[in-house]
Automatic annotation (TrEMBL):
<keyword id="KW-0805">Transcription regulation</keyword>
<dbReference type="InterPro" id="IPR011711">
    <property type="entry name" value="GntR_C"/>
</dbReference>
<keyword id="KW-0238">DNA-binding</keyword>
<dbReference type="InterPro" id="IPR036388">
    <property type="entry name" value="WH-like_DNA-bd_sf"/>
</dbReference>
<dbReference type="Pfam" id="PF07729">
    <property type="entry name" value="FCD"/>
</dbReference>
<dbReference type="InterPro" id="IPR000524">
    <property type="entry name" value="Tscrpt_reg_HTH_GntR"/>
</dbReference>
<protein>
    <submittedName>
        <fullName>FadR/GntR family transcriptional regulator</fullName>
    </submittedName>
</protein>
<keyword id="KW-0804">Transcription</keyword>
<dbReference type="InterPro" id="IPR008920">
    <property type="entry name" value="TF_FadR/GntR_C"/>
</dbReference>
<feature type="domain" description="HTH gntR-type">
    <location>
        <begin position="12"/>
        <end position="82"/>
    </location>
</feature>
<dbReference type="Pfam" id="PF00392">
    <property type="entry name" value="GntR"/>
</dbReference>
<dbReference type="InterPro" id="IPR036390">
    <property type="entry name" value="WH_DNA-bd_sf"/>
</dbReference>
Amino acid sequence: MGHESLGPLRPARTGEQVAHRLATAIALGEFSLGDRLPSERDLAALLQVSRESVRTALRTLSGSGLVEIRRGRGGGAFVRAEWAEASEHAVRSALLERWDEFEELFDYRRLIESLIARTAAERATADDRAAIARALAGFDAAATPGEAREHDVALHRAIARAARNARLLALHERLLSEVSLGVSAEPYTWAIYEEARPHHHALADAIARGDGDEAARIAGRHFAITEDAVRRLARRVGRATPPEP
């Protein structure tokens, strides 16, 4: 699809680009206050950059007050603030320079996730339905946005697995990575949690009943939640974006 801005980063100014992506992910709520960011090694693998580029980015974020670097056992980079003076420039760089590509990605993701949900409803086994129910129970019991995010990922992975097609599962994972700027985490605040919860229950119920049309319809609406969060952030830095289709 040509999503250069959404895939691996290019060598020029890589540390700066990593900082922009992470600052934008924090502003979106992909990481909450107090969350530990993925390790240097994991971030380097996710973004396909060197660990030195990640270190440069983390130093930049620390200097801007967005993260706190803790040394020693249990250390790492922890989210200290959701927004800083440098955040607006970071968001403009990470989102707005390639906004047309994000529009295409949003549309593509809704189409694919609707197909996955429909196929899961048609093919889910008893074990698949049980796995979906367990992930849903974990989501309902989440005590923090971070826990909700983890169970959300588990729920949608269980649904993708229920489609019984390894390529669809891989495509689901890739789309999550692209829409989350390569860090593979959905935005999650309590407001998003409350919006997502009825969708999750309705989607799990449609799959359990084998209602492919309903599952596809709900999935199309549900995956617009992340899109809306990205649009709101884009508006915050002064970009008027089209409404949800």
